[in-house]
Queue: 2 jobs
Job 1
Amino acid sequence: MEVLDKLGPFFTLLGATMAAFLPGYGSAKSVGRLGQTINGVLSEQPELFGRALILQALPGTQGIYGLLTFFLILTRSGLMGSGFSANITWYQGLLWIAAALPITIVGYLSAIDQAKVCETGVSLIAKRSDQHARVIVLAVVVETYAIFALLASVLAIFSLS
Amino acid sequence: MDKIKILGLRKEKSSVLQFLQKQGVVELIETDISESELSIGVEESKQLLTLQTREAEVSRNQTRLNSAIQTLETKYANVPQESTDLKISIDDLLSVKERESEVLDLLDQMKSVEERKIDLAAEREQIQREQDILYDWLKVEIDLQQTSTQRTLVFLGRLEKSALPELEQALTEHSLAETAILTLKSGDTFDLTAIATLREHELAINQLLKQYNFNYLPIKKSGTPDQIYQSNECKINEIDETVVELENTVKSIAAKRLDLYLLSDYYAVTLEYYSASKIPEDTLYTFSLEGFIPREVSREVEKKLEDNFTVLVKVIELEPEDEYPILLKNKPFAGAFQTILEMFGAPSTREIDPTPGLAPFTFMFFGMMLSDVGYGLLLTIGCAYLIWKVKIDTSTESGQLVRMLFLCGISSTLWGFVFGGFFGDMLTIMSGSKITFPYIWFNPMDEPQKLLIWSMIFGVIHLFGGMVMKIINEIKFGKILNVFLDIIPWFLIIIGLGLMLGGSSLNISTFDVDVIGKWMAIVGAAIVLLFAGREKKNIFSRLITGIGGLYGVINYLGDILSYTRVLALVLATSVIATVVNFLASMVSGGIIGWIFAVVILIGGHLLNLSLSGLSAYVHSSRLQYVEFFGQFFEGGGRFFKPLKYKTNYLKIKEDK
């Protein structure tokens, strides 16, 4: 168990970095795919750039939520500041991982699903640019669950510290 | 909204239409006169045909104008304009017609200039290519054209140095010995050669030369390479000079682009007028028009029409049951949030305008979500600059958005004081925990659970607001019974359940809050159970509908939970701000360190402002659309679109 005891900070960092990289990757993937679609639309209708950019930014938020969780875990667990000498048991470390799980998983998946809504939304505004607001609302309905997951993670982090 | 019917003399039709367009308050509709009543004679159909021809011409010219304007705006944007006043009076706009051909000439001129430029560029490229080849041939003193005689032929070209001996050998092998290879000029890896031979060997030599990669000189002009090079040089200079001249011509057109704007907008207005005058309710001597007009101006327009023209005007007051377009009218504060409703869609003619309801809540929720004094002030100042300094047109979509964000910025500032945020925790971190920005209520980063509860309480208030709107609607529809059986019970259930859950924290000792809450919930639930299915005759199906009605509690629960996003967004804003401050404090120290810190602070906080601002806008709108509108909004109307002067580039001055 001696080795296990030393793994506390590692587990904590693992939980934090997972929250940063999975939703971040999901966002990057979504934003990238959307960018491709938007480029296609812009070749015909360059005036839609502003509207399309907002749609592209929407699935980018999950990456931010992940980064936010990463930062909260680092500060709240005491890893930031004490570094290698952080006093975290392996059991606490696992709890930090558990706290990070909601945003890690839902953040990643919801970014991709939201991008699908945005992608069809882009082709909708290419035909009817007045429908822009509705497209945003439809995409935001997906994001709701990323926000709930973030909330679950954040509340877990606050109750652990 | 009223309906206006106008009957007048045909010869006055166009002036009446122009008058209406100038007023800009009437939306014309096609009346349902049957075909037989219309008597379009030869003369009329001729007129209609001219109208259509003219319309096609105008729209063609407009397309040309707009693409020219686009070219000028992209390529010559920094050419100073002769006049920069983008505000014009209606008379100015209409008077451009007299100069129409003059402006269109500019367009033709620009087109021919552009074409000429393309031709010249192609020619220059051709000559330049020749120059590149000729450069190697300079100082070779032969006339490039006069190289052959009656019996002999000379090929000029480049030959690889290594290929020369092989070629000589091949010539002897093929018994073409009467061929001379002259090296005119020696290069590094190749020679410039002249190969002279008899005419009858032409075919064989050509084949051989191809085999040894002989590179024929493609220029067949008379004169020595030096002479040709010189004259080409002159030609290039000439072309360059011409291009500069042409550029100046375009620049002089670019300086006059206001005229192009003017004509383009004149065309836009004219096209609008044409589409209105095509509604063909004409008889031989009279015309009739029908349209919608806002009630407050209908009498005035009626009087003006009757004074100025020989027309018969009838104004019919419309009832909510009639279908008519929606024109929203709100006080300045609520009006600023009208854009949120306009994006969603028009309410039906019967129901209440939801704008006064959604305005204070959007104001509140946007402010809560951004809740930062620094960000709020930046947003407010930025929007104020756009409104009062740049004088952005607040009647456009983006102008309305700016007006709304101005108010939202104020709200964010206020909430920033409430929660104690100034660019996140910038003061704390940068001062080394010596100063902390004070909060009025509490700091959500320290007490997230408290904000969680409060955001749901604000959510309940928002939902109740929606239910009050529903009550107003039901009263408008004359269905008072629905108010007591469908809406009031839910007030009882939600408040009752709320008291049961959180009543003990209110610390009221005089009476038992839990019990009151319990009974409120029970009474509410009983009403829903018994009356939700009151249309059903059968007692069992009525009860089953009642149970289904009670399932609505899940919907309300979902709606209320949805407001927890407020907490998440508050935390998102402040945590990202904290990250920015943290990064800046890590690099700070020393002059270079502080420069980096300031760059990180400015860039990071601007990024956070735009991302969090977008989130706050999008999510506060969503709370309106899904949760608030879900309580009462029927929708299905359409917005009022009067015939008026719609311009794209210029702004029309109101004439007093």
Job 2
Amino acid sequence: MDKKTVTTISYLSRLKIDSEKEHKIVKDLDNIIKFVDQLNGVDTSSIEPLTNPLEKTAKTRKDEVTAKNLKKELLEVAPSANEDYFLVPRVVE
Amino acid sequence: MTIKYKTIKEIKQMISQKDISNKEIVEEVYKLIDKNSHLNAFVTLNKDKSIKKAENLDNNPSDSSLAGIPIAQKDLFCTKGIRTTCGSKILDNFIPPYSATVIENLENAGCISVGKTNMDEFAMGSSNETSFFGNVHNPWGENLVPGGSSGGSASAVAAGIVPAASGTDTGGSIRQPASLCGITGIKPTYGRVSRWGMIAFASSLDQAGPMARTAEDCALLLNEMCSHDIKDTTSLDENIPNFEDSINESLKGKKVGVVKDLDLSSLDNDVIGVYESSLQEFVSLGAELVDISLPNLSLSVPTYYVVAPAECSSNLSRFDGVKFGRRSENPKDLEELYIQTRSEGFGDEVKRRILIGSYVLSSGYYDAYYKKAQQVRRLIKKDFDEAFSDVDVIMTPTTRGPAFEIGSKGSDPIQMYLEDLFTISANLAGLPAMSLPNGNIDNKPIGLQIIGNFLDESTILNFGHMYQTKTNWHMFTPEGVKP
């Protein structure tokens, strides 16, 4: 973990790191990664990853429309919207 | 007649005997909230609607199981028309157009949602120090943390303001604050309670549950919180028992697993003493202690700190300033809108976890970290599967010690992460687990953790209730033992 890696992952995360906090963040992340590195000592060959404690497959259900149309309510809580769309700064010139 | 420090069971009786009206109960709750404003347990109150619902109940009495019971809801559950912040600046103006299934279930059972409780930002923390709305204080001591992340809920119940609160638990966020505030709280089996309308942190670990004064009250609440919900694909379609039915069963011949490879070396002798004397109480109730081995238990915390940040970095990508929540002022383009909104809206701990998540999921590191952690997660679950072939429950201390002082963990995040040493494994394995008060150290409460087998909340609640018929640790309040 170094400054360059932190710059890359902060961009991937769409986060900007304040320059005065950068040193501490690099150090914290380095410590956390070193801490989780102890997993490397475990023999996991032939062990299937467990992504979720419920290994049963999710049940399917009939494809019925149950949701109400909440367009108005959802657009109302948006930071910026017109009567049909969420609005963001122009992306196409 | 007061409802301060009363249990749900006691309040139900007061209502049915007409010792108090529903309106008087709700009005007293708001007086208690005012008196305890220094605790900072609530972020948003729901006063007008609550009083109205109480008046309606007075005019049209209901026989619903929790009719008129005031409850504090963790501010992580979406509540229709009531601000829902998740302890974050990025949601400080968010008013959801719908309620979480668990909120609907509780309100349909008659509960009155009096307000939303403070919490660690996005449930990331073990001390309630990461909330945008400030620290929550523990009623057991001015400078003590209540634990986290459901710290406001725990503090409100411990102070006797409400008999019940909802919480959520991703790595210990119900059980650890329950331990530090001297109350009872249970994290059900993963999938028991719908996650629909719960703001997601780590989707394969998150589970909602009740926080109350007794195991019996937790059973009453859990009866209503659980449901099969087609809106949550991980919601289990399994039989939901009446959790009250078996709470009085004898513990005679039941087996308590005692983890022989548990590293207690970092604990104070007092903490070990409290734990060991609780085990003996269960022996005197007829249970048998059986040594079990969970060889991979010590890997729970590092496993969690790969899995949870990975899922959080993915879940929290939805907070982009476009569809809801706060948006930064005057971004020059769309990318700046995303970056500024997120950088201004998230606090340091949330950012740290998003960054770790992005790192362990990034190309070139995925196998080394994310896949590896999921493989170790299976080993941890396998250990539990084997242990539960021999025992009914497993017991450990809930926390490494009683409540600590605000600011005392310093700035090293790993010290805080180790707070959840004993609680995290139940989330990784998806198992139900409860914390209940089992002692006091320097006039600060501490809890015992009871972990149960998959879908077996009933046995945990049975053990908890029988313990509470024999001991009075759950009767201790910050003002002395309840009469």
